[in-house]
Amino acid sequence: MRIVMTKATVYLLTIALGGFLFSSCNSSQKKQKSEEKDIVESVSVDGKLVDDFKKSKLIFYSLPSPLETAMLIKRAGATYNEDLLNPLSNIDKYSTNRQMALNLGIYSADLSYTSLFDQTQSSIKYMANAKRLADALGIMDAIDEETLRKLEENIDNRDVMLDIISETFMSSNAYLTENDRPAIAVMVLVGGWVEGLYLATRLTNGSVDNNKRLIDRIVYQKLSLYTVINLLEEYKSNEDISYILDRITELNEIFEEVEINNTSKIEAETNAETRVTTIKAESEAVISPVVFDKLMKKVAEIRTEFVS
Amino acid sequence: MRHIVLFTLLFISATLASAQCINYARNVGKELLGDYIHDGNYNGAVLEEGEKAELYKTFFSGQSYRVGISKVTQLPDIHLRILDKAGNVLFNNADHDYQLVWDFKVESTQMLIVELNVLEREGDYEDVLSGCVAVLFGLEPDKKKKRK
Q1: Whole-model pTM?
Q2: With a CB-CB cutoff of 8 Å, which residues 3-42 of chain B face chain A?
Q3: Domains defined for chain B, CATH in brackets
Q4: pLDDT in tens, B24-62
Q5: With an 8 Å Cβ cutoff, are B27 and A58 in contact?
Q6: End-to-end CA gap in chain A
Q7: B9 contacts in A (CB within 8 Å)?
Q8: Quick check: A187 and A150 in contact, CB under 8 A?
Q9: Touching check for B50 and chain A: CB below 8 Å?
Q10: Which of A31, A257, A307, B51 has its CA 20 to 30 Å from the CA of residue A22?
């Protein structure tokens, strides 16, 4: 046992030192091989302690990102309405971690929405606000001056702008995760999700008949709500997360009144040549005008709390 | 005391490996998505041979998704399966030479499970390999055009 532990200690020191050196390097332009050099580990099977350390099965919950939500809203035929966005001037109100994290998500969602609708000047302003909150949360380098400059230089190229937005969202999320601040990361994600739901519900003008496709998008957020709740449950010992979970639970009670049923068996058709799999199933979602009205009001209430 | 030192080192090692995994996903994983736009979410972890991970995600109708799995090349193949909530297998990359990039469309919105399993090397080895595995989702852009 002594030999095993000595070997393991030396080995782990090597990994730790290698990892430290690796993480100290600038990683922006590295090739795959150099990326891999320090990432692969080989652990002795004799190291029983390693088995004890290993987790059984990892579970991830992936929420629709602000970018995906904005795309879904746009493809549902919704219009652009700047009045619905969280005013830029609200930023001065945010001083606690909870406020800053939620509104980083909210401004990210607004940024995605403005970009998808080609509102480039607004996009630059919302990116600047997102940067201020990211800086205040100590998310180093997620959005830097270079990011803002690149955004301004590419205002006539939507795909590049979307790529920059996606990169900043990933960087913020990754920074929080790697610096052991997952609760903040979850709050950013939930803030973005709530803002997307708020924009979508408001863009229906309060009618379930106004835009069926958009209503469909909203109703199916019931499935994402499962993900939101699971994410929050993981960190509910955190006071801020617990507060948000209570509010989201109220929203869930309304979503419980929404019915979603697969009316046929789920089947898949794969085209190996094009590498595309199409998943076929008929599904039916039902929401009554009364429930939709309750949902709209609850979403607006929660969002008002978040941005206040 | 030795246990404390060892577990501290294991923790430091895991934390550093995790940080490297993020860099790996950013620099290598995103490229797999090609002209699809990365949705901005990060899902990555250091996995060992034989280890399994599950990811729950809602796939919306009308949206084409590209799933790209990046792994360090020294790791064995990754077995990818897409399952519905009832556990029915809708896609299995073992039928397609363990391809790690695949496109998905759904005719109606569904919550699906993306299941990854790092296969174990064949034969007898005295060590266990582990390395970064990241799953990124790409969204098909509307059209390739420049605005005027």
Answers
A1: 0.81
A2: 3, 5-7, 9-10, 12-28, 37-42
A3: 2-139 (2.60.120.380)
A4: 888 888 999 999 999 999 888 899 999 999 999 999 998
A5: no
A6: 59
A7: 9, 12-13, 16
A8: no
A9: no
A10: B51
